[in-house]
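On clarity, I found the account of how folds are encoded harder to follow than it need be. An entry of this sort, consisting of the sequence and the corresponding backbone structure tokens, reads as follows:
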Amino acid sequence: MFGPILSRSILTLAFVTMTAIVCGGVWSFGYGAAVDQLEKRGRADLALAASRLTGELQRFRSLAVLTADRPEIMAILQGTSSPLVSGLLREMADKTGSLDILIVGAAGEEILSSSETVGVDHAKRPYFERAMDGALGVYHFVDPRYDRRVFYFAAPVFADAGPVVGVVIVAVDVGVVETAWRGDELAVFFTDELGVVFISNRSELVYRTKESDIRMVGQSAEYPTGLITPFVRHNEKQFRSFEVWEIDGGRYLPEQALHLTLPMPVIDLVGEALPDLAPARQLAYLQTIAAAAIMLAFGAVLFWVTERRRTLAFANADLERRVANRTSELEAVNADLQRTQAELVQAEKLSALGQMSAGISHELNQPLMAIQSFAENGTALMQQGRHDVADQNLGRISDLARRMARIIRNLRAFARNENEPLVDVDLGAVVHETLDMLAARFATENVVVNWTPPNSPVHVRGGEVRLQQVVLNLMTNAADAMDGLSHRQLDVTVTQADKTILSIRDTGPGIAEPDRIFDPFYSTKSIGAAEGMGLGLSISYGLVQSFGGDIQGRNHPDGGAEFSVMLQPVETT
């Protein structure tokens, strides 16, 4: 009683374990695939945001370079002041959205400003020193002068003789640049070499960094003390090759997100993005739930099928017991029936073996006659001293022996539905070889052969030996049909169209039943005269079909029978 219960309990536990493993695998795979897609989309969005920021700053960079080339700026640096220059700088700042445009002398002193406030010393500042070296200086920091985040683009002003005589600085308000792309779905921010968020589309991220970077920021003079706060916890994680951040940044930032980075050396920042992992987890959970539901449904069906099979097994066992009581009288009859069936099968095997032996004898009769003729001629030639011609006869005998072996192999392959690979065969050469093999018989029986070989090879798809066997069957059947007639003529032609057609016509009495000529064992020959078994045309039909061709037989309007073999031509280039 406890055996079936224990067995069911073990199966149930095994199924639950398997379900848990499958669901775990589905969750892992689904989550990984979702994260991969999230990472690709996040990188594309980050690249777009970085390109947009670079484009926004590029116009201020160009403004600094173009302003430095104006002659009015050179005049001010050379001490020639003009009241119109101050108004020009204000107009340029207003039209371009610049925070300020400054003209700085070679010693770092401010000479003129679009905001009309001067006095800041730029000497020894990195952007100023780079501009004085003849390059474009780029710098970003929290400027106490404007009490906001700024970008400085410093362009050198070159004298006609070549040296740098001053610098034009364009100050850019970072807050104005951010306005155009705040509120995007993906949290994007740009950090400096200290890891501090300097630009972001989330205002709550500005001036924030990781906890691990707080100490380094505190030792820097670029940011006021107490301005920088952390938003990334210490417990950073790794998922596959991705970095995962645990974030404490308010409700507008994800609690857990991928951390993606994109270096931006042109503006000396690093673009970073935080794609939210919640959608990926949700998708993985949904896939896991679906997999669990499918597994449970499969388990329910399996349980029902198992119970049904158990019930059917009990019913079947009862039925077998009933049948066993009534089979004793049928066993003897069944044994007699089995013996009778075995005898019939054996008789059928012997009959089939006899038919096949007769068919093989029929197919090999003509080559054997040719071998006999060549052997007799060879003996006579040897006695006459014509050894060269005798050697040729011996070679033909060897070729015919090999050909007979190949015919037997192909007949056996045909009987077993085995075919050798098809090749390109010259149909004219096949007809020529067959006529050469039958030449002795045709000469003896006064058969006139009308055959004009083609001017060039006529290639078709087939097997060389099998195709020659077909031609041999048709020619020998034609010769047999003309046996005893005074006029014996065999017309062989090859025509080329969509298909290559070989036609063989005799002057015999024709075909009595054209619809049955390809049936196995159908023959009009009398046993003992030509030993016909009716296998030749049936075998030929099967061989031609295996080439992808067709064979037809009909009575010619002018008398006699005509067989047409249609084969696939080989396209030549």
In short: The first strand starts at residue 100 and ends at 105. The longest helix spans residues 2-68. The mean pLDDT is 79. The chain is about 50% helix and 20% strand.
